Amino acid sequence: MMTMINTFLATKGIYFLTLVLLALGVAGIIVCNNYMKKLICMNVMQVAVIFFFLCLGQKSPGTIPVAMDTAVKASQYINPLPHGLMLTAIVVSLGTTGVGLSLLLRIREKYGTIEEDDLIRREDLMTRKNKDGGDRK
Amino acid sequence: MRKTITVILLIISVLVPFMAFDVLPVIGDPQSAPNTHVSDYYIENAIEECNSPNMVTAVIVDYRAFDTMFETTVMFLAGLSVVIILANKPKRRIPAHSSLRRMKDAGGRPIYKTVNKDVMISVIEPVILIYAIYVLFHGEVSLGGGFQAGALIGMTYLLDIMVVKRDRPIFDIPKARAAAIAGFGPLIYALTGIVTILGGGLYLEYNKIPLPIHHAELHSIGITAVEIGVTIGVAGTIITILNALMERISFDDDND
Amino acid sequence: MIENIPVLIVLLPLCSALLCLALTAVSRNLGIFAVKLSCLASFVLSCIQLQMVVTGGTIHYAIGNYAAPYGIEFVIDSLNAVLLVCFSLMGFLTILFAENFGNEKRPMLVGAACAETALLITGILGMTSTGDVFNLYVFLEITSLSAYCLISLGGSRGVVSAYRYMLVGTVAATLYLLGIGVLYSVTGTLNMGDMREILDQGGYDGAMLTAMCFLIPAFGIKMALFPFHGWQPSAYTHAEPGSRPLITGVMGKVPALAMFRFVYCIYGTDFRFVRIGLILLGIFSVFGMLYGSLMAMGQTDIRKILAYSSVAQMGYISLGFAIGTPIALAGAFLHMLGHVFMKGGLFFCTGAIRYKFGTVDINEFGRIYKKMPLTCGLLTAAALSMIGIPPTAGFFSKWYLALGAAGQHEWIYIIILVISSLLNAVYFFRLIEKVFIRQSSELRTRWESEVLELPLTIIIPVVICFIAIFGLGLFNVRIVDILLMTLEGVGL
Amino acid sequence: MNFMALELRPLCAVLISLTASGLIYVLGEHIRPNAREGITLTAAVLKIITVYSMIPAVLAGREIRLELFSIVKGVSFAFNVDPAGMVFACVASTLWILTSIYSIGYMRGHGEKNQTGYYAAFAMCLCATTGLCFAANLITFFIFFEVLTVATYPLVVHYRDAEGTFSGRKYLAYTLISGQIFFAAIVIVYSVSGTMDFVPGGFITADMLPMPWALVVFFMMIGAGIVKAGVMPLHSWLPAAMVAPTPVSALLHAVAVVKAGAFCTLRVVLYVFGPEMAKACYGADILAWMAVFTIIVSSFVAMRKYNLKARLAFSTVGQLSYIVLGICILTPYSTAGALYHIVAHAFMKITLFMAAGAIFVTTHKKDIREMVGIGRRMPVTMMAFTAASIGIAGFPFFVGFVSKANIILGAVSMGKPVFVATLIASALLALTYLMPVVLIAFKKNVDNPEFAERGDAAPAMLIPLVITAVISIILGIAPNAGLHLFDLAVMAGNQIFMPLM
Fold first, then answer.
1. pLDDT (0 to 100) of residue D446
2. What percentage of chain C exceeds 90 in pLDDT?
3. How far apart are CA D484 and CA D85, in angstroms?
4. Where are the domains of chain B?
5. Which residues of A touch C132 (CB under 8 A)?
6. Whole-angstrom Cα distance, residue C167 to residue D132?
7. Cβ of C185 and B194 within 8 Å?
8. What is the CATH number of the domain that holds A59?
9. Per the CB < 8 Å rule, is C414 touching D187?
10. A92 and C141: CB-CB below 8 Å?
11. DSSP, res C2
């Protein structure tokens, strides 16, 4: 039993960790009431996927993929592709976070809150106000 | 309701991947599919084909250069979006919570008096800038590249606006202008591709750049050109976002 | 030069978007003009490309001249050649239309919004053409980011719905990334064609099933398929009016195309669990078709009606995928094409009515047809097409869907199609009733002209959508033939 | 070149009305009413010429066939002018011009609003009707059938009031639901048989559709037809649609809509399923009994209605079931009779409706009980009304006799005494609900001051209704007069049953 777990952890344990991270991110997005926390959870989730990809690029005897001399053997260096891909993913998540933050800023300026239930209450209030205004006209 | 969904989702998201553990490769296995199929080609041919010992750079800006072009565009897009989103201010504002009402809309950028202005401007900033340029041009051979260089330049700007008063900026770029400049970064990238098309090749086929030199050199030139584009794009975007946010945020420690 | 057309179609809107702000700073209309010109050029090029594909077969365009699994590849088969024509046309029309909704006093903001729309078009066109799964992700993010921004432009409600969409959309993108990560871990490639070849060797069923568990919710969220549609109604309702036709008409279709690519082109119908996936998809679509229509009945805001009807219409498209025979797939894609013009057209009408009268409440639409006959003509045509009255496009796509379902003996799908069209009829005839029959209400006209009912830049999209709805209907066989060139090989 | 021009005639007949409709919708508000109605009349005349010019070819036994382009994969958008379609097309195009003239009188006399929309939708209806007359296959037929459904809707809601809206909704509910079911049935038929071309005698065989399914599909297809034809219990939209102006009622009842339903029944029973299959799956029998039920019940309902138009509406419900019954008896005689009844009923019922409309415009009377002595004020109108009433009852030397006699002949030859009895009884019932109107109108010794002096309807209304009344008498005496419509009907009947004999 212990050996099984040990082998599992040694060979594939890291996947488990990334998936736990992912699950935490998803759960956070659903559970959290605060929009800022949701944004953080979103980032956690993205980081989990980035880990996942980097795990795929691991190679046991390999080193960083910068060629030391002209004769190159494939087994010497780790897989450069996931790193390249994840650079893109990081930039994308950065961009998304930036947009998310600025949206949050707008929300807070308009509604004065970034708590979800509070916000929904305020939206309802606004709708009712608009309707009343319409009737009065 | 929410809790139930969460529990279900958590169970699914942990359990479903469990069946995937069987199929996922063992960590560090040199014979696994991702480590053999395409990656071997990249590792073995990067120097010869792209004249770039840094294989990650070769992948990013040569083999998969098209991705990176749109990645830079995503940066630009994010900057532009922040500008657009923050361009409108609500006219009538719902009164904030009592907890929030304490924060006043001070306006203006915060000034950190703890940082020595003279040291910052005369010593640290030039060093960072030179380092950025080094990182930019050296990305091809060792670690580094356009993103890092752009980020460094952006940081210089951040330092600058932290130490200089608002009315006397050293280099002050309005956010719309900055966004326009950020647009030129990906444009340089895209135009590099257009040049290769004009040279008779396919898009971003660097060895068709119409210059009379060896094709390995052409790859270097192409890579450098797109890295410059990336740098401008990233630096411009960071400046844009900083400017846009600074106009709106009043830090809590403003009045301290 | 001619062989570079696939990439130029995507590049032209991109370059114009990047330049748009700088050009706007030079002169206030120059940026928008450049974007318009590039979108038109991109439409023309995609028409030429369609011709090339029809005569010469599938185009493989290796970017950087690196052969398929090593570099990024654009694959233009007859399917996405047709879709590219349709999407680029809609992009051009939206750019024309959007110019009327900017804030006159802030030219830089107008230019920026225009750049965002152009980037949205870039993302859509790129997602349609690409043959690389990671490249698809990058384009997906470009599409999403620009959509978040354009939705947030529609006032403070828009900001909130954009934020919600952003959270859900990012979850979808992350799930997509995870799905392709799993596929990458067993195949070691990111190229769609190469992935198909490796997966065809067999023995990857577990990984494929896992990836499918991630991919179906991912695409489901992005295309607003029924149980994942939560973000959609408020986002479509509050999006910026100028670019709304593009967001509502085209944005949901591209993930559907990507889903098709994964299910039929990468997985293939030999995949052991394909039946389970298709039945699941069928259940989603059936409930979506009923739910969307039922929800739409209860609304009074025309934008909300149309948003919920989109949930139902996406159900039609995924129903075609769930049936899976070439003819049903052709029906699904024909519906995709038709729905671009129907929903886009209806939102052009909504925008036009809002532009002229400043209202979106259908209870105030009393007899506006007297004042805007062209717009109301399109409104009627698009509504009839949604219901599926011949000879509009909607009828023929429904015909192929039903024929495919009959071929597979899925009688329940035919019954649902009939019920769904009748439910559509309920709320669309309510709309027609309001427009043509209700007592005229007193609406203040915001825009007056002796000659035209609306500015020319609104009339052109309206008229073209009108023609397209009937053209796609009457000449559907030509399009279906072109679509079947690809679909014959991949369907059940 | 000449050959090409000949072949395009069915398309021209459709396009003329379509063009007229488009022109009226676009230009209607910008040109004078005279010009607008000029468009209608010109189109009507052109259409009549086009349609009539095809009669000799059809009589000679040639079928004018025109395949345009593929409308769905494997099926083309095709027209095929056969005798049955020709009969209906002749009726519709002839009556269009008369109804148009009458409409001008009625609409102007009554000062109606929304006339542009009215004329545009009317032309659209005629376009659809002609299209479905000449349609060569199910999908072409269905396209025009649905266009007709939609184009009639604005006419039903013409007054834009609450009542009109309600009856519009009712109309749509009935026709759209049945239309969608028809659509599903077409899909099933196409997927089992692989063809959709109408064939005299049908193309569905028992091995394509096993028995219980054959009956289900039969009723799914026939549903659309019998809803439009107003067969009970699916008739209730038709009396509700009475709120529309009288010319619209004339169109619904006489020219296009209900006849399209009857024609749809004809096509489905005899050209898709065919006599053998229709009999084998018991569809024809069930339908025939529904028709018998409708004929009797509608007569009794009509007696209790005192609104003239409502009474006429229920009369239509009954008369249309004659056609359905004639089709379902499945003999050449009865089929010819049913087809000819399309002609007969069209001319008689349009006379009645035009008369009712003329009375309404001239005296604003709707209720029969208020019309005592009206014959004195409007003698010509009421004479025409009388003639048409007698015709409906099926008296010899009136057009109704020819058709009913043929249907009865068919029933006799099939040995169905109940059908014969029903037909004869209904003739008497028709007398009992239409004759009172005539008797009240010409009641002697009444001095109703309203109707004291003579003042008949305006010529634009009077002339068409006199013409239709005269035609219905002429056709009764000489069924083949002019257009050889009776020959066409007989030809159609023979065509269908030829393979069986």
1. 66
2. 43
3. 14
4. 34-86+108-248
5. none
6. 53
7. no
8. 1.10.287.3510
9. yes
10. yes
11. G
